[in-house]
Amino acid sequence: MAFTETYRCDVCGKPRGDAEDWWLVWTEMTDSAPSAPAQPVLKLTAWNVLLSHSAEVRHLCGARCAQTAMDRWMRGE
User: Widest CA span of the chain, in angstroms?
Assistant: First the structure.
């Protein structure tokens, strides 16, 4: 019996299809300078099935939803 995963865009709810350009986004803390406090950084990368399983990663169906996710992150939502 085969296992089937279904992903949905975390912005618009669209289900993932095979021919679409999907993206992954997550936030990490970074130390940019020794004397500066750590601050969050938004990371965006092309779809990777191994990364897609991480609990911190959000799934995005394209550029529009990636821009919406970035806008929400910048506003602190």
Answer: 55
- pTM higher than 0.90: no
**What burial letters (b/e) apply to 2-22, b meaning 16+ CB within 10 Å?**
eeeeebebbbeebebeeeeeb
Q: Token digits for 37?
A: 């406090």
Pairing verdict, β 39-46 and 58-60: unpaired
Contacts (Cβ under 8 Å, ≥6 apart) of 29: 38, 39, 40, 41
52 within 8 A of 59, measured Cβ to Cβ = yes
Q: Residue ranges per domain, the chain?
A: 23-74
> pLDDT by residue (tens digit) across 33-65?
778 788 899 999 999 999 999 999 999 999 999
